[in-house]
TrEMBL record:
Name the record gives this protein: Uncharacterized protein
Spans annotated as Disordered: 1-29
Superkingdom of the organism of origin: Bacteria
Species the sequence originates in: Paenibacillus plantiphilus
UniProtKB keywords: Membrane, Transmembrane, Transmembrane helix
Any Pfam family matching the protein: DUF5345
Chain ranges passing through the membrane: 81-100, 106-126
Length: 136
């Protein structure tokens, strides 16, 4: 007997007896498991779900939180603005003293600052160029 004839005989026997395949058994087993799970765990899960439900904040508490956050942000902005003005006035005062004492030193400081700013801007433009190539 060849292998093909043996397989065909086996397939014919399965069809005659109507033996359910493993896939059909898996589906029914899965449905049985699902039904068993629903019957055992549905009520405790619903109770647990209701017990951990978050409280919805009131409109007053949300508005209070927003106003306190705005106040914190406003105070930080004023602090940063005062710091900026303080550093700026310190730098301008220092430059005025340098200008008063020596014109050559003042020009050297100005040219050095201008060159450093140009290098920083040039370097930043190359970095942005590289980022654009990789992100777009």
């Amino acid at each position: 007997m060849s292998r093909r004839s043996g397989k065909s005989i086996l397939n014919n026997c399965k069809e005659d007896r109507q033996i359910p395949s493993h896939e059909q058994q898996g589906i029914s087993d899965e449905q049985e498991r699902e039904a068993l799970f629903q019957s055992l765990a549905e009520e405790p899960l619903n109770q647990w779900d209701h017990s951990i439900a978050p409280d919805i904040p009131s409109l007053e508490s949300i508005s209070q939180m927003i106003s306190s956050h705005k106040e914190v942000v406003r105070s930080r902005l004023w602090r940063d603005l005062l710091l900026l003005w303080g550093i700026g006035s310190f730098i301008i005062t220092g430059l005025m003293f340098v200008l008063y004492s020596s014109l050559q030193v003042f020009l050297f400081v100005q040219l050095g600052t201008l060159g450093a700013a140009g290098l920083i801007l040039l370097r930043a433009s190359f970095r942005k160029e590289g980022r654009r190539k990789w992100t777009h």
